[in-house]
Amino acid sequence: MPVRMRVNHDKESKCTLCGKPYMRTKEMHDLQLSNKRKSVIFTLCYDCMEEIFQKTLKASCNYQAKLKTKEDLKRIRLSNKFLEE
Description:
By secondary structure, the chain is of the alpha+beta class.
């Protein structure tokens, strides 16, 4: 899934999650998540972007630290095989 991000300079923009206006945040970002059929753009303030970053970093660290079961290893192999195609 392609993920794109850019800094938003639109002074009329508001955060999609908390509704904070452009002038009340350090920086505003547009985050685009897309696949072949659909694309969604979220406008996020600095605080919401930071919270998303912290939660995704925690999930990634928890996954990396996890002791992998046989089923996990099988899923990893299937995932890697899918990416090669």
